[in-house]
Amino acid sequence: MIFERPTAEVLHNESDVEQKLLYPLLAADMPTGLAHDPADIHTKANVRKFIIGKGSDQKSYFPDYIIARSGFPIVVAEAKAPGSDLGEAYREARLYAAELNSQFDSGVQPISKLIATDGLSLHAGPADHAEPKYVLRLEDLDIYNDTFAKFAAEFSAHAVDAAFSSLLPLVRTKRFWKPRKLVGGVAFQREEVGMNSFGATISADFSHIFNPLTLEDRNFVARHGYISSKRRERYIEPIDRIIRASTPASETRSKTLEDTAAPLEIVKVLRGSRQLEHQVMLIVGSAGAGKTTFIDHLREKALPADVRLKTVWLHIDMNPAPISRSEIYDWLRGQIVDSCKAVDPQTDFDELDTIKNVHAAQVTQFRKGTGRLYEGNKETWNIKLAEHLEHTLRDKHTVAQNHTVYCSSNRGKLLIIVLDNCDKRLRDEQLLMFEAAQWIQREFKALVVLPLREETYDNHHSEPPLDTALKDLVFRIEPPLFQRILQSRVQLAVKANSADGKKTLRYELPNGMHVDYPASDQAYYLSSILRSVFEHDMHVRRLIVGLAGRNMRRAMEIFIEFCTSGHIGEDHILKMVQSEGQYVLPLSLVTTVLLRSNLRFYDSDRAYLKNLYAASELDQHPSFFARLLMLKWLDEKSNQIGPQRLKGYVNVRQMRSELSRFGVDHTVFFRELETLARGFCILSEDFRTANLADDDLIALAPAGRVHLQICSDTYYLAAIAEDTWFRDQALAEAIAERIKNSSQHYSPRTAMHNARACLNELAHIRQSESKAYNAVFQDNRFDNMTDLTKAQTTLGAFERSLVTGPWVGADTRYPENTIHQGRVVNRTRYGVFVDLEQGVTGLIHSSNIQGDHFNASEYAIGADIRVKVLDIDHLARRMSLVHASDETALEKCWGK
């Protein structure tokens, strides 16, 4: 944007000066303007008011604009009506800057630049100078004016960046520590627990059931394990309702199937008298909702026999399809020919008579036409026919058309061409697939069935090319309940297992030994895993379903990874087998598997559940709450109608501007935005996860809501503590020490300590960030958006489940190296027992006592005594003390 200097005649009041001169000057590109990103320019509608001046001059004041970097204010800009006292305006801006700077720590004065203008003149200079350094008239605001050029150089975005960089040494933590990086070398940090070979064997043996890829496997599942989705059963659980709310359907533009097991709505269409050739039918549903499985079920089982006999189905996998309009049609011609041959495997399509039959129209054309000229010479006639057929075979389009006629129309059947797996593509690519379906519709006598992602249809059904879709040929399916799919697939696996008879399998123990077991034990394993998922239904099923959204395919992938995780050790496998599938994995183990998959140490980049408090230690100003703020902000907008009338979708530029107030740098913003998009927490309107820009539309995805729900969970906080940068080295090292020990790494005790350490660190960071935010803004919005109360309450409840009575919270009341008043309650040969409060007793060990404690008056039972806490383990109800007045003992303990 180029700054176009307004004339004095159009500047009538303060609003004109603000909107026609000052803001355009701040935001316009160099060299005509100062090139500040609009997201960094905060308006008076949000900034905090201060009382400035003294005595009768005292007034409540806030400027028109504050320009900030990473939440720190750098420039105050003030606009006044033409003819105002600009000297007074500059003085007020300077007083405001001084008041705002006083809100920060001593020595930290972020505001260093002032601008004031009445439209006719402009004053600018350092905030700590009484007089402006630059005084420019309106006509001086020109790139050829030397004073303006100097002013622009000193107040440009680049200059503000430099001012912020000079501020960083005063406000930025110099070094951070991440516990996972303190446990050992890179190889150890990335150590995998591997897959348990028992579960891996199951995954391999039953992959055709849990993840069917071939048409044969898909048909098997469609015939024997299809789970319907019935309207009355949908979205009865809270997580299901949340997921459904994320993707509102355009019901008036489609028919939702009442029961996908018996899709009477589609059967009626296929059985009716309506001409279906040269038509497109859309099957609309979420990604992974089972559209492909439904079509397989429709073809294999749901269609009545009379309808099935009158149809021929071609399935074209669109995954490898080119996305270029110049290439896709030739590719489709080849796929149609190959598919026609595949549905008639008994026919040799290379045999001459078959070639003549397939291209009968061209043979007849030759016979009736030029072929009559050669009827007297059989040999010449055959040569010319061969030339005619060779010419036909070079025409890919005619070849494809002839094959479709041969395998369907000539046999009195309706050809149905299914373009499968289109919904895995980006939005624009899906729309191209619809154009391809329209092309097939025009060029071939067939009904084209196109599975389409519902977001694409709902958001663009009234725009070309989707506006041509006939709504009575648009059918919507909803995903079935995950638990029913899972139960069905497990039952199929158990049946397949039973068919193997006395087959013997083998799995490997961690020590390298092998254990042989009957195949029937696999059924017990699957049954126990299934029980574990539903025993902890409030936690586990909702996590899996929420992380997958409505993508049941992704949910099954998560389940398979769960089954094969090496965190499920041989002791648990043995219990599953011995209990014949009745054993339920403990919740702590289930949560460990979901959080870490096959990793020993939690790594957000490789986990399904992302660290919402992640930051990069390399950033100028690490933003530990950026991801949380993004998801919470989108959650607030989820019920609002956004651009293009899309519910829940917002413009990236709008969110970036809002988060700039919270100190989220623009580079950090886009990096974290794409991280959340790749993690399925945020959905872009065109399904891209990379190179997102200001003009893109985004919405909160179901997995994002799951993250908002679980981010207060103690096990979650304990896991992310391993992969979070700490400002406190001691905290990070303490976590690293706890997780190094594999025997205690995943224990509830370690979870509680690590979660508390993580929360304490986040609370300190939040306090610092809150102070900076509240210095500039008056709405306490940062505090509300980053509230940790729920997490602290959850941690308190978790602690009470491990320890009861007065020892709850004892480690926070009596931290190490603090001195407290106590009372001696007992003396033994081990030492002296001291009550710090009723029920909380510590021990002064005899090795830390000088002389005979049995005869020392200060250790007499009932004596008051001041003690120092050396160590406390409140879960084990143990506390090590030393007499605070015993200097020798203190020095001895200090030396240790």
Can you put this structure into words, describing what you see?
With 896 residues, the chain is an alpha/beta fold. It has five domains: 8-171, Alpha-Beta Complex (tt1808, chain A), CATH 3.90.1570; 197-207 and 482-598, no CATH class; 228-476, no CATH class; 631-703; 807-895, Nucleic acid-binding proteins (OB fold (Dihydrolipoamide Acetyltransferase, E2P)). The chain contains 36 helices and 24 strands. The strands form six sheets. A six-stranded mixed sheet has the order 1-4-5-6-7-8, with helices on both faces. Strand 5 (72-79), helix 2 (86-101) and strand 6 form a beta-alpha-beta unit. Helix 14 (352-358) packs across helix 15, helix 22 (540-548) crosses helix 23 (552-564) and helix 30 crosses helix 32 (748-776). The radius of gyration is 36 Å and the shape is flat.
Secondary structure layout:
Layout: H1 14-27, E1 41-43, E2 50-52, E3 59-61, E4 65-69, E5 72-79, H2 86-101, E6 113-117, E7 121-126, E8 134-137, H3 146-155, H4 157-171, H5 186-189, H6 197-205, H7 207-210, H8 215-224, H9 238-246, E9 255-256, H10 264-271, E10 279-285, H11 291-302, H12 305-309, E11 311-317, H13 325-342, H14 352-358, H15 360-368, H16 378-393, H17 396-407, E12 414-420, H18 427-443, E13 447-453, H19 454-460, E14 474-476, H20 482-499, E15 504-508, E16 514-518, H21 521-535, H22 540-548, H23 552-564, H24 570-578, H25 587-596, H26 626-637, E17 650-651, H27 652-661, H28 666-678, E18 682-684, E19 697-700, H29 702-710, H30 714-721, H31 729-740, H32 748-776, H33 781-785, H34 789-802, H35 810-813, E20 819-828, E21 831-837, E22 840-845, E23 864-873, E24 878-883, H36 887-895
Parallel strand pairs: 5-6, 9-14, 10-13, 10-14, 11-12, 12-13, 22-24
Antiparallel strand pairs: 1-4, 2-3, 4-5, 6-7, 7-8, 15-16, 17-19, 18-19, 20-21, 20-23, 21-22, 23-24
Helix pairs in contact: 8-11, 13-17, 14-15, 15-16, 20-21, 22-23, 22-29, 30-32, 31-32, 32-34
